[in-house]
Amino acid sequence: MVTVYQKPKPATPVITDVLGQSEPLYDVGSIKRIREVNGERSISFSVLNTVENMYAFPLIRSESFVEYKGIDYVVKLYSAKSAGKKSKKTIKALQKFNTDLVDHYVYSFISGSKSLDTCLSFLFVGTEYTYTIIGTFPNQEFDKFGDDNALALIQEALNKFKVEFSIQGTHFTFREKIGNNSDFQFRYKHNIKMLDETINSANFSTYIKGFGKDGLEVEYVSPLDEAEGGPFKRKHAPPIRDEKYTSSTSLLARIKREIPDTIPVAITVDFADMRAAGYPYDVPIEGDNVLLIYEPMGINIETRILRIEEEEDSKGNIIKCAVTLSNIRKNPIHRNANLGNTQKFLDKITDEDGKVRLGFLDAAVQRATADLHSAQTEVEFINGFILRSKVNPNHLVVLNSAGIGVSTDGGQTFRTALTASGIVADLITVGTMLFDRIKGGTLTLGGPENGNGKMIVLNDQGEIIADLDAERGGFSNLYVAHLEAPNVVSYGEENLTFYVADVAIGDGETPNDGNHGTSWNAPLATVNEALRRIPRYYDGVANIYLSHGGTHRGDITVRGFVGRGSIYFRGQSKTQTKIVGNISAGSNLLNLYFEQFTINGRANSYAVVSSYQNAYADFRQINLHGNNSERGFDILQSGYAQVSESDIQSVDACINARYGATCWARDNTGMGAIRGIYAYGGYFVGGGSAPEGGVSNEHKTMGGEIFATFTYPYTPPPAPPPAPETTSTWNSTGTYKGDSWRPQYGGQWFTDGYGEDAVVQGYWGGFGAYKGLWFFGSSPSNAVTGKTIKSMRLYVQRKDQGGNSGAVSCTFRPHTYTGRPGSEPSYQSPSTTASFKWGEGKWITIPSSFYSGFQSGSFKGIGIWVNSTSTSNYAKFYVDAKLEITYE
Prior knowledge:
It comes from Sutcliffiella horikoshii. This is Prophage tail endopeptidase domain-containing protein. It holds the Pfam family Prophage_tail. It contains nine helices and 66 strands. It is mainly beta and about 900 residues long. Among the domains are: about 5-100, Thrombin, subunit H, CATH 2.40.10; about 180-200 and about 265-330, Roll (Phage tail proteins - horseshoe like beta roll fold); about 205-255, no CATH class; about 495-720; about 725-885, Jelly Rolls. The protein has a 19-stranded parallel beta sheet that branches. Strand 58 (about 760-765) and strand 59 form a beta hairpin. The longest helix has 16 residues, at about 360-375. The chain is elongated and about 130 Å long.
């Protein structure tokens, strides 16, 4: 092995007063440095007033600056006293970021579900400090985050997101845990002089209650409580009372933070630093996971370094080192929070022109340059060059024919590496990246750790033609050949034909709303799906054919179409094509035609067929059976409709014209329990026969008029259709109407971990394949157990965020839970698929393979899951859903 040493720089503190005068300090006694995980970073020493210090000594006072080994400190504790014929000053200085951030007050605040990046950018803005986030951390709920100094706000963020930080100069790095999983050992008769174990149970508790708003109450019992099989009797902690909590989930998470699941144990080791004895790699670093072996006390555990207290002589050699190991997570910024709080945000990676900010890039370059210039390095040759830091030998660079690797854990892992296979790095900072060399994959801008993404597109003159970010988007000139969006009215003039059936026709496919629906070989399952595929602004002719002999279950809703076009609902036979449900058509400014079917309305309905505010609606050759409903055909609210060659039975009033509407009626038959023709502020025209009424054949009131002369011949009514099946609809219900399980963090529910109510399918951000479920309680199961199910539908709506904005195929499966289970859920074997775009809400038809499980009482609800980690399957839905079942 060839080893080359670079001479270390003298370890001399430099003092600078508040006026900017600087001098080196000599005749310094031993220097004590303290480093804690998320805690104190300080330096303390004494200085004599000698000839060498005649200029530096007067500069030592409160708020002066001390620079030592490249780190800036601010004097916070200062004392002076005589030492024989000389005087001596003793100081304790905290790392500069503490005082900077304590002195920066954030007067505003933010609330709601916020990412770690949002919180940090909010509290750092206006300071010289920048930051990097490594890792993914779920959003957390905040109520008025702010109105405090920045250091206190950092503490709150660290607690909420359960992260730790390191700092280099003015740049923070936040990650789940600092330090490394090292193979370093603290061992009896090797490097331990003395060991002190402290167990503090003074504030130890096993039980706590929390009280929120409107009587919300939760409790938490520690695994150490005897009720949970633990060794301790119940020890109550003071309750948490806070009305800002309205969810039991968030309140439970809050009170759990007050109860440790282990007894706090701290072990202080008087560590014999081995570097001076020729063991350069035995270097403890705060945050490292290490082994502690101390045979006299029977200790053999893996633990973590939380605090290091080193004492150096005037030459910078370690003369004493005490290391604190613990099973407790330190209260973030424990002591420094007493001084105040913190500030500054990296102005954002991009400026107003979308370019990488030179300030940010320069800071990164400056940090790298400072690291290289200050390096104290030894060079080894073992299968290539190893460049190892003499200050911290765990920091090294390997250079050989395979590539270049940078390690912070002594070479166990290389989180930054350049090989023939590519580049690996937690963070890459660049000036300009050549996009001509970039292709494939997915470009992601923004996210929970990085804030709103942004993309700027310039023309050849340097002018902005597109400015897109997560909050807004704009184009100076936009052309889209085909645009679909939930908040944009689509236009079409192409003639369309759709086929709807209840069973497969011949050798064709089973009806499904995912079929193309343009032939009887692959029909749709519902009329409403056919309507959804027709542009809202329509100048063409659309035909929707209902199968002959088919029974089409479910209400039909036609609303909000405009244009010069027409939509035809074509049954194949007045007696053989059946609709079980009601029809509602309203606010349409194109022509509607309904013909040749029997409609078996929902019992005791307000109206079986309702036509309101339509420009033109034509109902012809229809047998209507109301099952004791109030109205058969109800034409109202200034609209116009025609009813002809139809028979109306089992209603109070057969044909109604109300509230300024006009009905043209001709050659209709039937019997109303009270009236045949009823003009309630509306108008009748037409002629021929009309339905009879049990009280009066025709009646007008509220200014209504009957301008036509109708005949009322008795016509024997047709045989009534079979009594309609019962159709019931249930909304998702419970404390959690829906939720999603993800396998990360030992398994957790999306609402608990991310703070968002959503039913999720697919994989995103390394959290595994989500299992989404909607919960309907026990009511659907109780209603249909032992019954015969005729049809099932589910209404859900995809959120306008998450995953691909276009159509994502979702796989729906039954489950057996009335509410959210306590562990990972499972699904039953039947499944069906349907595609959803951002913001799209619709009914999907549930196939008959689901029926038996609901009829037997084992199936309780429906969820979504696909066994794949492809991000192309990722979709988020609202938790509000409707389950409709028709049964007899």
